[in-house]
Every structure is written in C-alpha cells, then in structure tokens.
Amino acid sequence: MKKRYVSLILAAALSAAALAGCGGSGTEAPGSKETTGKEAAGQASAQDTVADGELSGEITFWHSFTQGPRLETIQKAADKFMAENPDVKINIETFSWNDFYTKWTTGLASGNVPDMSTALPAQVAEMINVDALAPINDLIDDIGRDKFAETAIAEGTMDGNNYSVPLYRHAHVMWIRKDLLEQNGLEVPETWDELYEAAKTLTKDGVYGLSFPCGTNDFQATFFLDFYVRSGGGSLLTDDLKADLTSDLAIDGINYWVKVYNDCSPKDSINFDVLDQATLYYQGKTAFDFNSGFQISGVAANSPDLLQYVDCYPVPKIHADDGTEGIMTTNTPMVVWKASKHPEICKAFMKTLYEEDTYVEFLHATPVGMLPAIKGIADTDAYKDDETIKQFAHAEEVLTAAADIGTAFGYEHGPNVQAGIMQNNHVIEEMFQDIITNGTDVRTAAKAAQDKLNALFETAE
C-alpha cells in the first residue's frame, strides 16, 4: 500500500481550506515553535535526544482535544513531564479534527509537521502511505502489547511495523431523549423505519426528530450513510477497495437520509458540521442523534436539566431480526512523525499518558465519552469512582459493546488508504447537497460521486 500521492492530499487539503474560508477553528498555543525544515527520517536517533542518560530537546505536539477539560489534562501531563525532565520542552498546539487534516497535509510540502500528534485512524493510513510516520513498535512493547486490543493496533500497522498507539476509543450509537419518547407513547426504535416514523412524530413544538448533516467542510453525511449501509451488512467499499455508492443498499441509504432531511431535519443542516449537529442535541432541539459518548458532556454543559433524559442504544437495523453488525468504532491514536528530531522524547512522553493516575484523570475529563484503550482500567476503583460513569452505566455498556465489534470507518476490509480519501474529500456530502438542492436523480448523483471517488482512489494505487 505504501505509495506516494502527496499531490492528491495536498490538493484535497487546499480545497478544504478554501471551503473553510482558509481560517479554521484551530488555535496555536502561545510560544509554539516553528517546525519547518525538520530533519528527514533516519537523521534523528536516541543519541540526539539523550545526553548523559537524560532526555533533552524540544518537541511540538499537535492534538485535537479542543474541549477545556481534555486540553487541560494533556497540558497538565506535559507540565509534569517537563518538571521531571527539565531539559525537555513540549509545545502544544490544538486544532479541530477537520483543521488538523488540512494542517498536516499542507505541511508535508514545507516540512511544517509536528514531532507527535493525535490523528484519526483513516488519517494514519494516509500518513503511512506518504511515509510520514516513524514506527513505534518499541513503545507499544514497552507499555505492554497485550494491554491493547489487537484490532486497535492493527489499524496502524503496515509491513510488520506499528505506526500508531490508541489513546482512547469510542463508538457511534443512537442517542435518544427518553422524556420525548415517553410523552408520545413511543418505544426506542430498533429499525431505521421505526426511527423515521418516531422522528417524524417528534418533529414539532420547536424540536426536530432527527437532523441530517451534510456540510461539505466535514464528513458527517459520509458517516451517516455508512451507519445505514453497515447496519445491513454492506460497505461503501468493495472487497477490492473501490467506492460502492450504487448498490441497492447504498441507494436505499441515500434515499433514507434524503427523506429524513425533508421530513424531520432543520433545512440549514444541509451545511452542518459535527459541532452544529451535536449542538442541536446538546440544546434539546433534536430527539435523536448519532454520535459517541461525548453527547453526555455536551448536554451537561448546555442543558444540564435534560441530562436525566439522555441515553443511547445500538444503531438501528434494516429489519428487527437482522444480526448485529459492527458499526463505526474510533480508536483515537497518537503517532510519532518521521521528521521528528527527538522521537525518544515523544515516546517517553506518550508512555507517561498511560500511567494509571494520569490516564484515569484524562478519561474522566470526558467520562463515558472516552473509553479506555487499554485493558483493566475500566475495572479499577479509580476509574469507576466518577458520578457520570455511575449515572450512565447503561450508556457505557452500549458504547463498549459497540466498540468491541466495530471497526474504524472503511476498515471492515482492513486498514486502507481509500477509507481516508472517502472520508476527507467530502464527495458524499457534495452528492447529498446536489440531490437536495438541485433535485438530481439519486442514482445519477450516486454514480457521479462513485466515479469521482474511484478516480481519486486511482491516484493512490
């Protein structure tokens, strides 16, 4: 799989930057260092980093933990590490997930990439494909390889080398409002048809049943279509990793979400990104949503009086008696960039994030939103001693079960760069907008989007 297609991801990143107004919502930490012109792979070594047995050097860490508590716990961990290693400086810069993709892809050409970063699994495949990452087999072995799920490690593995280590995991499930269901005599939907009927019934009195987001600066519509298709045992990728938007199942899914948009969704959701979408649920303006356990902290911050009515259930099925399919799980990883002059500092710092006290404090920054990536933590008294985890025991159970059987987006065929291209180029979002805005025939629009994706795929082959 390891081929070069820097021009493709650079073009995609420039396009995304233009759509976002070239500004982005990420912020740079004060005092962050310039990373342009870092040494190429192989020039850095343990000897560069360690002087007299002590770590020494300066690194930049890009992460996407933009929410206050998570950002604060990461900074606290970095401060502690620097206090224990006085010759080390860690500069932290924070970007939204979407802005991060633009940042690293455009940064490849100039060398403006960090020493270490968080990433999304599909992005890791792209980073491996352009030879941007350093192997971290030794770090995983040092932490304890058997502590991680094999599937989570496999997501960042190529040719026997591990290029990412999961920091936490979560799964996408269906979020409900118990009070609205009870007030209208409705049961929790188990099928997509039941969800549509319930959402249509609940679209009243200033509440939308279910918002459908398809803004072209995010990948929410891609995910929503994927939920439907994967629930039916299908995939948006064929076994030979071609885009498949014209299968009967995919066409049914496209029609389903267009129907939801028309009957149950605010009309401006055609331009929604993930935060726009989630905020409606946070504020009590939607009855259903699809997201991770981060919904809990969002409701707590925006509408704490509604928190008692929040819960989650598995993603619906096509038919009630269908088998349970694995939907989208995200094992959010960290990576070390090949251009780093000090990979040993990166790995030493990463290892400290898994120390029980630090790790539990980090997970508690968004309880139930971030599930442990290493075995045994969920069973510790320290982890369980959290009021949100106690209150949302059912939600955590649903999320954990979903995480255990799901895969990263597009990885039902194993790790692949095509999944990242499909996720990050927003072709499916453009397809939905074409159908909704221009009235383009669904099959015609799906075929055009499928052809566009396959043309992009060819550049990576």
From TrEMBL:
CDD domains referenced in this protein's UniProt entry, alphabetically: PBP2_TMBP_like
Key word Nucleotide-binding present: no
Source species: Enterocloster aldenensis
Protein name per its UniProtKB record: Sugar ABC transporter substrate-binding protein
Domain of life: Bacteria
Residues of the signal peptide: 1-20
PANTHER family hit by this protein: ARABINOSE-BINDING PROTEIN-RELATED, DIACETYLCHITOBIOSE BINDING PROTEIN DASA
Keyword Zinc (UniProt): no
Region described as Disordered: spans on this chain: 24-45
Keywords: Signal
Transmembrane region(s): none
Pfam family, one: SBP_bac_1
